[in-house]
Amino acid sequence: MYRRPLFWIWCALVAALAFYVQNHLIIGADLRLFLPAPVTRGEQLLLEEVGQGPASRVLLLALSGAKPAVLAAHSSALTSALRADPQFRVVTNGESLDQAITDDLLPYRYLLSSSLDGQSLDAAPLRAQLNARLRDLSSPAGSIIEPWVARDPTLAALALLTSWQGAITPQTVEGVWFNRGGDTALLIAETTAQGFDPEGQQQAIDRLQSALQSVRTDAAVSLTVTGTGAFAALVKDRAQGEATLIGSIDGIAMLLLLWIAYRSITSIIQGSLPLVTAGFVGLAVVSAWFGTVHGITLAFGFTLIGVAQDYPIHLLSHQRRGVSALQSARALWPTLATGVASTCIAYLAFLFSGVAGLAQLACFTIAGLGVAALCTRFVLPRLMEAPRIDHADSQRLGRVADAVLRLPHLHWLGLALATAALAITVWAPGPFWQNSLSSLTPIPPALLQRDDELRQELGAANARYLGVIEAPTADAVLARSAQLQGMLTDLQARGVVAGFVDPGRYLPPVATQLERRARLPDADTLRASLRVATRGLPFAAGAFEPFVADVQRARELPPLTAETVASTPIGAAIGGLLVQQRDHWLGLITFNGVNDGAALATALADAGEGVTFLDLKDASEQLVIRERQRILVSLALAAVLLVIVVAVTLRQGRRIARVLLPMALATLLILAVLRGAGVALNLFHLIALVLAAGLGLDYALFFEHATRDSRDLRRTLHALLVCSASTLVVFAVLAASSLPVLQGIGVTVTLGVVFNFLLALLFARPPGGTAAKH
Amino acid sequence: MPTMRRLMLLVLLTPLPALSADADLDGLLQSFARPAPATVAFSEARYSRLLTQALTVRGEMSVPAAETLERRIDSPYRETMTITAAQVRIDREGEKVRVLPLQRAPELRGLLQAFGALLAGDRATMEKYFSIELQRDGMAWTLTLRPLEQRVAQKLGLLIMSGRGAEPRCLVMRPPDGSADFTVFGADGARVLAQHATRETLLAWCQSG
To answer: Which end of chain B has fewer CB atoms surrounding its CB within 10 Å, N or C?
Structure first.
């Protein structure tokens, strides 16, 4: 009679937990949670977000589908619409560079440009310049430069603009960048969100599309966005879409299976309570302990605690007429508890792996599995009605059970399988481990190709290589950057890189600006020089007064610094390249068109103190390798703990062997199949292997326990068939996923269920078919 | 503008059919398709508000290869400017050789693209870049080219070619900023410039046909 209130109390508790989780859970997307502590300077920089660098925040935009004039108008409108948007550090389409030297910045050309470093503004060099300008004026480009000649006869602004441009600049149509074919307008957007922050990137992309929508005058104009961030968002989107689909299919399949097995809606609802409770308890514990939970922790955590669905299934299948559910639960408990305890203790190893994400995963799983087991033992039986059916009555199960008991003990088969599997695992061709992170996030080839095209057209920065300058102040970074100019220019001349962008390109250090300022003549001196310089030349009197005025203004200008340029177009250009850390500054050098990564590495390695060469691919692979080593150590430790728990519980050597050997053999077989199929293993395969081993342990424990009694064996068979069938369905659907991560887990666990079930069936029974004696 | 000179050059080097009353623009444009090489003398006067007098130069233009225009100045200084679809190379006496990419000079580049169409006598493609107007007054003719691209038009203004019978004589560029640029073709170009010392008289001469 107390069943109904108990049920509602339980539901209320779960709801309360859900409420707590809702209010306290913060889901993080910081991948660094899943990476071990950095060792080298390069890894440190990689993890200090710098490594994600400006290149990864760059989105490449392509507008196509209409006439060039229409596209150009959209390009301009889009750029102005996004100019002050907080989601973008800068959006350029070729216009803003020409506008970069705004009127108030124009006098600064004499402080910023190196064009006057080699010469003064005395009469003789001025006359040479003015003569050249006369000839320029009579050239076909005369009308283009004429407006500049009066204000800037030495063409310092032109020199500055030229130095700001990368080596590759796209052609300009209607004043904005276009591709070579002239049918696509090109833009570059640098987001404020990090490249590997898929949510931030998705918001930025959504903003781009909505901005286009708001300025759109032609429905045919379409926007393509590529770049690291776009890919991150795409992968997340696809993963979410696919996960939702898989989740729905799994849910329906699971319900169908439970219906076939138990024909009772009450049983299904009650049977799902331990898993639901486990999920919320896991979430609550992790968010209470760690504060922020990584999205990956959640995804894998729920995969791992899915095993908890097996616990109520065991209880439901083991019901006997005339025996209360509580008694059945009590009888099952030693076996169930051994399985749960050993799995949980094995996960303890991850808790101390030194990788925060794995520790969260372990905490979530241990809490979840523990709670699910305790619920199954102490709460669920009190809800269950007296059983109406006993699965031991099933004729069909009886025949299967008898067949199982008649199975021969094929120890030689186990040995042969083990040997073959080991041989395949060791000698199969192909790499054992997958070190590349990018292979886990597949991008459609067409999009990758588009990205490559756009990158080449725009001369956009290479996302793999980065130079990092470290110095105590921003100005010191700029000074160091200026010192490196020669070396970098040399690299460009040698064809090692097609181009480079460094902070010094945009802003010289204060000392240099002061030197240049000190060399500028006063108005009278300059006018006198001009009088001498223009003698005999057909320039109108006072033609160069705008020039004199600009030089005078430059003489009074305070030097520009990283802070004072912050709100100017120079600031937009330099912002991503100068990064303030807690106690020092970083300057980033990006490259485009890298032809010789090794030569680049050598040159930067020789650049001296405070300069680090960063190969992001290499550094991330090193991290992946070290992370895997940590996981492998944890796994080994987990295996040892598991053996100890099983040994302590079962005590007899033969029984221990009957439980552990099938699981070990199944793990080996999974490895052999994966290796034989040419699969390079990644982190997710490893986690899936642990999950499969946990399942195998349960199967073996129950088989080992059940074979003492024929009727009990039927119930155990029923339970294990339902368990393995449901797990199989869930992970077989996952194996059909197009996402390598999900597919890897799906394939591994599917294999694990099949192997573990069959091997437990074959090898977990005590010898001699003891059940026949009962 | 170099393309315009090239265009002009081609017009010059082409024995233009006598523009009979029924000769239309198609016929004129189609007759432009010519093989390289070829050479023509030119004289040029440029007026600017920065200057107290016009800058005049004299030299020769040639088409040494397809899609290439060489503009050589012989007086008052020596300079060879080679213009291709991608870049301009300037080799001026007493200065370092300069190579300027054309990517960032749309007004030059657009014209060069149009030039390809002109070579092929492809009026349709030409008209993607210009609106073209042909006027005739007896033997005299005037071809007015107006860039379609707004920004190009802003910098370039109108391009007016004029000639008489089979003989083109003048290319006038009139940017909106008030400066003016006259190119007179033929060996007597220098004499014509000397005789017409102001832009007004020069313009009148060009328009007189």
So the answer is: C
Please compute the mean of the pLDDT values over residues B184-194 and round it to a whole number: 85
What residue in A sits closest to B108 (Cα-Cα)? Answer: A141
Length of chain A: 774
Distance from B175 to chain A by nearest Cα, in Å? 7
**CB nearest B106 (choices: A150, A169, A172):** A172
Enter the tokens of residue A136: 């320029």
**Subunit contact A174:B95, Cβ cutoff 8 A:** no
Which of chain B's residues have a Cβ under 8 Å away from the Cβ of A134? 55
Could you tell me the CA-to-CA distances from A694 to A174, A675, A699, B92, B113 in Å, in that order?
65, 21, 9, 82, 70
With CA atoms as reference, the chain B residue closest to A178 would be: B103
Region of poorest pLDDT, from A640-654, A657-671, A745-759, B111-125: B111-125
User: Which band of pLDDT confidence, cut at 50, 70 and 90, is reported for residue B22?
Assistant: very low
In terms of Cα–Cα distance, which of B18, B61, B32, B5 is closest to B167? B18
The angle formed by the CA atoms of residues B151, B154 and B156, to the nearest 5 degrees, is: 105
**Contact status, residue A719 vs residue A335, Cβ threshold 8 Å:** no
CA count, 13 A, side-chain hemisphere, A53: 28
Contacts of A147 in chain B (CB under 8 A): 177
Buried b (16+ CB within 10 A) or exposed e, A641-680: bbbebbbebbeeeebbebbbbbbbbbbbbbbbbbbeeebb
- Total residue count of chain B as it appears in this document: 209
Calculate the CA A205 to chain-centre distance.
17
Give the largest Cα separation in chain A, rounded: 126
3-state secondary structure of A505: helix
Residue corresponding to tokens 């992001």? A616
Tens digit of each residue's pLDDT (9 = 90 or more) over A433-454: 887 766 666 677 788 888 888 8
Q: Say if strands A171-173 and A88-92 run parallel, antiparallel, or are unpaired.
A: unpaired
Q: Given an 8 Å threshold on Cβ–Cβ distance, is A141 in contact with B1?
A: yes
CB A627 within 8 A of CB A355: yes
Helices and strands in chain B: count of H runs, count of E runs: 7, 11
How far are the Cα atoms of A41, A680, B12, B163 from residue B42, in angstroms, in the given order? 65, 72, 11, 14
Instruction: Map residue A61 onto helix, strand or coil.
Output: strand
Helices (H) and strands (E) in chain A, counts: 32, 13
Per 3-state DSSP, what percentage of chain A is helix, strand, and coil (rounded to 5)? 65, 10, 25
Query: What is the Cα–Cα distance from A112 to A110, expressed in whole angstroms?
Result: 6
Say if pTM beats, i.e. exceeds, 0.80.
no
Other C-beta atoms lying within 10 Å of the C-beta of residue A393? 13
Q: What is the pLDDT of residues A248-277, one digit of tens each?
A: 888 888 889 889 888 888 888 888 899 999
Residues 6+ apart with CB under 8 A from B190: B43, B56, B58
Which pair of structure tokens corresponds to residue A252? 């329906």
